[in-house]
């Protein structure tokens, strides 16, 4: 008899990895009965024809967001003390005092932080959050769904969503094994593990060691190294089209060589538009030297600002805008959902660009999969002033300490050097591909094409234990 797996989407961030890749197909080929337990506004049944059980109740206990914010800060305080490292302070977002309601929430959160900022305190606040969510009507709602459909296991597609807490508690209380996928490469040191499940799937051995380091309540046997489906499409030759076809589809000049500028969200890089402007100036100067270059600007899918418009309009002869194929279905950042077609687009942007430039994102791994280099901007802009976040702190984060060498990416630390770095890459004199692949192996794992299969093998292993 086929084992019934609920693939749980507490929010939309997991759709890209687990609905639009071959994840479901591989699982079915391995003999699993797959149903999507869907807490998002995106209908998997209507859009993709998948079996789904919709969660229509999206309640949280009123105190859960406050306790969750406090929990994160408490964990960061513990890490700062435990590892004697001030970097954990930089992961904290400022408190909000712009209304009476937000002031009350902030003051209450600070009170909780004062009480729970110890290892025992973190354990206590997690128990408190669980107790709150067991009182949340959504708990009973999800428990009833599970009793009706009787899945053998729950696979949660992200560990960082508060919307998943009550649902996973209901599963655990019914004796259904739960597995969480650690969503992003920087999530573990940033204290973004919202849920406690029976098992965890992580990208790499490096990430497994992080989970064990930061969460002493997790044992090694609970953590499976699987890789992430995020990068599988880069190795899928079915997605590749010829340069001529790609350029024709997006009205690019076949005579030009294009550099990809991958935009960032406003929190990570608040002055990001000025780095695009710097690249445009470098390209314009190199074109005067006889190069024939253009820029493909691919924005961050969750950036809704118009901050790039002036730069793009001033450089229309150089910059081509290729927006990600994502759809906004709600007002929150996690309600901007990818379309399946974006896999093909991104694959070919990587394949047919010369290299990528951006501020500190994981696109370095997207591009090294296509043997392309990456320039990271790491200099201050003159527009930087008090109250604007300096991008330099990004490179001090814990996940950047995983770089095997400073050659794993090409760092531009002075605007004056940008043009020369671009020229050296184009002339074949500078590359981070070799060291970048080593870094990719550390972060993404040794089998980037087998992540979906590895996750299903881990699920099978857990079910056999049961």
Structural key phrases:
Rossmann fold, seven-stranded parallel sheet, 466 residues, alpha/beta, 15 strands, 3 domains, 14% strand, six-stranded parallel sheet, UDP-glycosyltransferase, globular
Short structural description:
It contains 17 helices and 15 strands. The chain is an alpha/beta fold and 466 residues long.
The fold-level CATH name of the largest domain is Rossmann fold
CATH architecture label of the largest domain = 3-Layer(aba) Sandwich
Considering DSSP H and I runs of 4 or more, what fraction of the residues is helical? Answer: 25-40%
Order of strands in the sheet with most strands: 3-2-1-4-5-6-7
C-alpha-based Rg, rounded? 23 Å
Shape: globular
Coarse structural class: alpha/beta
Count of alpha and pi helical runs: 17
Termini, distance in Å? 15 Å
Low-confidence sequence ranges: none
**Average predicted local confidence, pLDDT:** 95
Q: What share of the residues does DSSP label as strand, in percent?
A: 5-15%
- CATH superfamily assignment of the largest domain? Glycogen Phosphorylase B
Give me the oligomer status. Answer: single chain
The tally of beta strands, per DSSP, is 15
- Major β-sheet profile: 7 strands, parallel
How many domain modules?
Answer: 3
Protein name: UDP-glycosyltransferase
């Amino acid at each position: 008899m086929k084992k019934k797996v609920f693939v749980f989407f507490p929010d939309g961030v997991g759709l890209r990895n687990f609905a639009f890749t071959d994840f479901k197909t591989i699982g079915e080929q391995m003999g699993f009965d797959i149903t999507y337990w869907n807490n998002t506004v995106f209908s998997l049944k209507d859009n993709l024809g998948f079996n789904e059980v919709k969660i229509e109740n999206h309640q949280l206990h009123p105190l859960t967001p406050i306790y969750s914010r406090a929990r994160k800060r408490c964990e960061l305080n513990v890490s700062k003390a435990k590892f004697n490292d001030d970097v954990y302070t930089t992961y904290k977002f400022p408190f909000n005092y712009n209304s009476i309601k937000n002031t009350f929430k902030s003051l209450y959160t600070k009170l909780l932080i004062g009480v729970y900022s110890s290892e025992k305190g973190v354990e206590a606040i997690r128990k408190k959050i669980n107790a709150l969510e067991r009182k949340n009507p959504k708990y009973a709602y999800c428990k009833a769904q599970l009793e009706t459909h009787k899945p053998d296991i729950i696979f949660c597609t992200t560990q960082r969503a508060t919307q998943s807490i009550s649902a996973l508690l209901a599963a655990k209380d019914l004796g259904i094994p739960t597995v969480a996928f650690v969503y992003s490469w920087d999530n573990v040191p940033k204290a973004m593990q919202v849920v406690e499940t029976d098992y965890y799937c992580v990208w790499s051995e490096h990430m497994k060691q992080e989970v064990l380091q930061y969460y002493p309540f997790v044992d090694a046997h609970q953590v499976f190294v699987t890789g992430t489906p995020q990068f599988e499409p880069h190795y899928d030759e079915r997605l590749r089209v010829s340069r001529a076809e790609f350029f024709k589809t997006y009205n690019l000049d076949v005579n030009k060589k294009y550099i990809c500028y991958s935009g960032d969200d406003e929190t990570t890089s608040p002055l990001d538009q000025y780095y695009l402007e710097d690249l445009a100036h470098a390209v314009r100067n190199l074109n005067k030297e006889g190069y024939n270059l253009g820029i493909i600007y691919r924005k961050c899918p969750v950036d809704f600002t118009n901050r790039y418009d002036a730069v793009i309009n001033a450089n229309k002869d150089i910059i081509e805008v290729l927006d990600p194929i994502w759809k906004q279905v709600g007002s929150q950042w996690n309600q901007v959902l990818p379309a399946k077609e974006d896999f093909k687009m991104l694959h070919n942007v990587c394949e047919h660009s010369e290299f990528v430039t951006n501020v500190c994102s994981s696109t370095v791994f997207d591009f090294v999969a296509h043997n392309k280099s990456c320039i990271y901007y790491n200099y201050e802009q003159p527009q930087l002033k008090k109250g604007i976040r300096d991008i330099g702190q990004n490179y001090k984060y814990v996940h950047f300490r995983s770089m095997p060498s400073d050659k794993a990416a090409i760092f531009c630390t002075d605007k004056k050097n940008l043009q020369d770095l671009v020229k050296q890459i184009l002339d074949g004199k500078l590359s981070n591909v070799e060291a970048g692949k080593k870094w990719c192996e550390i972060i993404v794992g040794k089998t980037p094409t087998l992540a979906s299969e590895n996750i299903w093998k881990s699920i099978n292993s857990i079910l056999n234990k049961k």
